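User: Could you check the structure of this?
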Amino acid sequence: MRIEVPEQKQLVQEAVLPIRWADMDAMGHVNNAVYFRYMESGRIMWFDALGITPNPKGQGVVIVNAFCNFLHQLEYPGELLVRTYASGLKRSSLDTWVTLARVDAPARICANGGATVVWVDFPKQKSAPFPPWLREKLQGAGVHASPP
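Assistant: Sure, the predicted structure tokens are below.
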């Protein structure tokens, strides 16, 4: 099954990450699980820029689902252009999307994927509305609610 990344999304973060020798598996290409780490790195850099820091005694984001479409093999050596997007802002969740391309071929998407994140009150172990300061930052970055 292939899940499509929507066209309606807002670019919120770009980063360059190295493809490390240790990222490869016995088949000579980047291991499938590592693609999720690349996507996580893009998301975490964006969250850091927003001022979201993990706080198990407070509130923060958790991932409720994640997927990846593997389109072209990645191999060492090289650098990745990790583009993170967001859309579908709701009361306590939003959708994040990522494209992975080599820096030396930025138009060729090697993988894409996404994750839905939910704002959670960790001590209560339940979702909570995004705080107003964060909702303002998200909307200021161009992340808007999904159409009904």
